[in-house]
Design a protein that fits this description.
single chain; mainly alpha
Length: 224
């Protein structure tokens, strides 16, 4: 598995390619900036390694405590942290819940301290309306976050696969091939064992001893 420095280098080296590909597809500098920024943020601070005490976790500074429940809930390198789409989606939902909670607490404190009146229904409607109004930017943001996370996960999978290939060859990389061959050898061995055991257990035919017939002379002698 690559180290934290290797992951950072992969993120920084991949950034120009991601930005160039995004600008070539969208022809928009704003969307390119959003994708590149979210890709960099995901690769350095919002990646799959937030489930352990990693560089990404340390870079959150004094806000790193919000990821402690996330680490205690998920197993390292599980599908919920390193899986495609589901890992990024879970982290976005998790962080959004924290931001919503902190924002509500801030609004309550402001309302109690300054006496400002807030309409919660209006705030929710404005938030939902802004999301629908800026949905291209939202899609670009999510795409950049997913690309940054996948660059991390693919480097992990590639590094572990390369190590297995160096140790055990192609069979270690693709374990199904080794399992099929082992199963074929085991079935052949079991069949041979069964055949030998059946041969050994087969009852031997009892050989009858031939009793020599008495000649007529011997019969007359016995009668006498």
């Amino acid at each position: 598995m690559p180290s934290g420095r290797t992951h950072d280098r992969i993120t920084l080296w991949s950034l120009p390619f991601v930005a160039g590909l995004t600008f070539g597809l969208t022809k928009s500098s704003d969307l390119t900036l959003i994708v590149a920024g979210s890709f960099l943020f995901s690769g350095l601070m919002f990646g799959p390694d937030l489930d352990i005490h990693s560089r990404q976790f340390i870079r959150w500074g004094w806000l790193r405590w919000i990821w402690i429940p996330y680490q205690k809930t998920l197993r390292h390198r599980s599908i919920f942290s390193h899986g495609p789409v589901i890992g990024t989606t879970l982290r976005v939902v998790y962080l959004a819940n924290w931001l919503l909670l902190l924002g509500l607490l801030g609004l309550i404190v402001a309302q109690l301290w300054w006496g400002d009146e807030w309409s919660w229904q209006r705030l929710a409607e404005d938030a939902v309306g802004s999301l629908f109004q800026h949905y291209p930017q939202l899609i670009a943001l999510l795409a950049g976050l997913e690309l940054g996370a996948m660059s991390h996960s693919f480097s992990d999978w590639g590094g572990s696969a390369y190590k297995r290939f160096k140790k055990g060859g192609l069979k270690a990389v693709i374990p199904k091939l080794g399992k099929k061959k082992k199963r074929s050898h085991s079935t052949h061995a079991t069949l041979t064992r069964k055949s030998t055991s059946s041969k050994s257990k087969s009852p031997r035919r009892a050989t009858k001893k031939r009793i020599p017939k008495a000649s007529p002379k011997n019969r007359t002698q016995r009668k006498k």
